[in-house]
Request: fold
Amino acid sequence: MLEETAQVVSVEEGHVWVETRRRSTCSSCSVEAGCGVAALSKALGKRRNVLRVIARMPLNVGDLVVIGIREQALVKGSLAVYAVPLLLLMVGALLGELGARQLLWDNAETASALLGIAGLAAGLAWLKKFTWRIRKDENYQPVVLRRATIPPSGAAGLE
Reply:
């Protein structure tokens, strides 16, 4: 289970809305000054994220909680979002190239580009159906695991 500390900002029946902060491990790294990730982190700032989380315990606005999501859900979700559309884009481009070699099309680059775009569109359509199917599946939803006993490092609450 991947865990993160968050602060409750709104309470609903069976769910809470929590606020988390984007964090970087740059402060614990000795190469911070010469690292591109550190520079990007500083440029983007510590933006706050608000998300809806399943809560099976009574909570109040302002409570600090530990939320979690299953590693398997994160891996499957990442593969669905990134790998499937990219894979279908490459398959479409490859089909365009192979079709041109078999003299089905005159221009290999145009065929590869068009079929690659069609593959990407098919991947995004599949992704829309996949996300629609899992939107209420609790295996893919973050949950409140417990109340936090210590505020997040460097912050009193998430201020």
Q: What stands out?
A: The helical segments are 36-44, 71-101, 108-134.
